[in-house]
Amino acid sequence: MQMNTCLSGLAGCVARTQYPAVVDEAIQRIRANDALASSADAPYVAQNGVEERRWICVTTTEQVNVCTSHLTTAGTDAGTANTAQCVELTAVLQRFANGGPTIFAGDVNRLDSCAPDTFWNETDAAATQARGIQHVYGTARSLKKPVPEIEPATYTDHDVLLVRARLKPPRL
Question: Which CATH number fits domain 12-163: 3.40.190.10, 3.40.50.720, 3.60.10.10, 3.30.365.10?
Fold first, then answer.
């Protein structure tokens, strides 16, 4: 489940965010969909007005690598911060995929994919708010291609992108 709760205080959606209502809405969505929480607001370090993104990846008890991040909104043209972050995200996901099934959900702030070629890609293109820039990627060899669902969100600038993916049976 990809949700942007807009609680960093840095984004333009802060005026729409109502705390704690946005957190309550997130909890309700997670429980209703029996989903694991994945925060779109990845940790950052602000130095000299520049936001440095970090990738968050964990391995579940089922040996699935789960990653998230939130790329900058600073343009998607060649040479921009978002493009550099997209290239880095592709490399990070490829490294994790070499170690097993990998899934990513995040706000990449771009319409085109940052997924490695061996991943499937789903987006919130059918959303009513800020469509197409939240993405979910999964390793095609180990995760079945899912069908995305969009759920409206009240207290943030993105709808909720819900993607269910099942592990493929191991090859014998």
Answer: 3.60.10.10
